[in-house]
Amino acid sequence: MITTTGLTKVYRSRGREVTALDGVDLHVREGEVFGVVGRSGAGKSSLIRCVNLLERPTSGSVVVDGRDLTALAGRGPRAGAELRRARSRIGMVFQHFNLLSSRTVQGNVELPLEILGVPGRERARKARELLGLVGLADHARSWPARLSGGQKQRVGIARALAGDPKVLLSDEATSALDPETTRSVLDLLRDLNRQLGLTVLLITHEMDVVKTVCDSAALMRDGKVVESGTVSDLLATPGSELARELFPLGGRSRDRGGADEERTVVDVTFHGESTTRPLISRLSRTYGVDVSILGAAMDTIGGRQVGRMRIELPGRFEDNAVPIGFLREHGLTVEAAETVAEATETVKDPR
Ligand SMILES: Nc1ncnc2c1ncn2[C@@H]1O[C@H](COP(=O)(O)OP(=O)(O)OP(=O)(O)O)[C@@H](O)[C@H]1O
């Protein structure tokens, strides 16, 4: 539904150049919720602004719903008619809601319809329908200043849906909200995604957002996408940074971890059916090895149950090829805990 190819954005200001996007290839499938995460300055906002051509990319292409937006003329507010039409099919939700305080809730939702030239009666009907969809039917005549943050964001979402978009872009839509309100706004986005078949591309710095609503995710660093995929594929990818951040393991290894002469510490990820099978006790019985469990956690990610466990086996990693092969054959992801253990210790035990 959204494909960017070689997307590059270089800002030039006061003789300085900043490369905010450095050849981003991203593919968001129709009907999925796709989360882009990364530190401040990684290029997330630039990406989202280039996807709807609020910012014109320096090079590369953006195709949304089969249409190459980069081939259409104009930029920002000076977009040509064709680009404006294509953009009206892309809804946008902002961190600080961007509501007009001089208009009622209904007036705010009607605004994009006015711009599209929809007649008054039809505008009012559509705005009320959208307010019903986001659970604000009773607030049509309220003023934005009277609303809570969560309600304001619901108005922002209703307004974003006014042009019947197929794609919704969300720029840190829940960052200004408390955890409970965040949850209800994310639930709303998930419902709209399912009910309307809406494709959602969201950017966030909160891994919990990805965990709660995203089918797929990408990690950005220095203007590049360094990892991307479905959340379940990422969780099954040994060494995935996103998987580690989505699902940090609470337990710690005894010292620097990993593989040494005497023992092997590995992180095991269980998904789907394997979460309910007693594979560790079978491993222990079948191969007569003592397995020590150093840490374990279960969670629901993208609506699916996932488990992680850090275990210790006697002997070196190479000596454990058969038991590790047994776990992998049964669909588990197994990786040496060396780097993970060190990272965990640095965070948990800042001596
Ligand atoms: N209009 C601009 N002019 C010049 N440089 C810019 C502009 N917008 C962004 N940048 C720079 O581009 C880089 C990427 O910024 P961007 O806002 O896309 O990152 P981000 O990941 O969204 O960060 P944040 O979460 O802090 O918004 C940064 O170095 C930023 O300073």
UniProtKB/TrEMBL annotation:
* Sequence ranges assigned to domain ABC transporter in this UniProt record: 2-247
Assigned keywords, A-Z: Amino-acid transport, ATP-binding, Cell membrane, Membrane, Nucleotide-binding, Translocase, Transport
List, alphabetically, the SMART domains matched: AAA, NIL
A biological-process GO annotation: amino acid transport
Superkingdom per UniProt: Bacteria
Q: What GO MF annotations does this protein's record show?
A: ATP binding; ATP hydrolysis activity
- Entry keyword annotation includes Translocase: yes
Name the PANTHER family on file.
Answer: AMINO ACID IMPORT ATP-BINDING PROTEIN (PTHR43166), METHIONINE IMPORT ATP-BINDING PROTEIN METN (PTHR43166:SF30)
Q: What is this protein called?
A: ATP-binding cassette domain-containing protein
